[in-house]
Amino acid sequence: MKTFAALLLTLVLLPACHTTPTKNYFVNRGGDLTDILRGHVMWGKGIALKLEVTRLLHLGGGWWDAQAWGLSNREVGGWHEQVGTWGLILGEYHERDVYDIDRVSGSYGWRFAEEGGTSFHQADPDNPLDLLTVRADLMLFVGIDLEVRVGEVIDFVAGIFQFDPANDDNDYTSVIDTP
What we know:
179 residues, alpha+beta, globular, six-stranded antiparallel β-sheet, 46% strand, single chain
């Protein structure tokens, strides 16, 4: 029975070894692993106390216009951000002014004063797993912003078998697609 299980596991993993060059495979798995946590410290004008359990459920609020340093979008560095966030079950996180990087998480949440009524906006519409994120913000002139991206855990595990539910394996090159 153990031999059969080992053979079955080998057959399942074999396509992953064949369809992606080894270098891209390990770069993508490393990127997926890095995507699980985001966090940064910030200092400047602001106050915040907020918890998000998924991108859909929020409790608390805050505003800051601050310098920041930390891990975001697979890079460590510094940037400036201005953020407004609120929530009482439903909520919004809005990055108003971010420079020195493209974005931190992106803006997301419920918008009520839109033409056409209430709607939910995703920070990354191409990545449905981004909704499964837990986030905490705490600031009084000095603060911290932490995200545990549970969806990226799923993406990392699926990536071992060459599935990319987060649509973020940009280096993916398939032998099947090449002439």
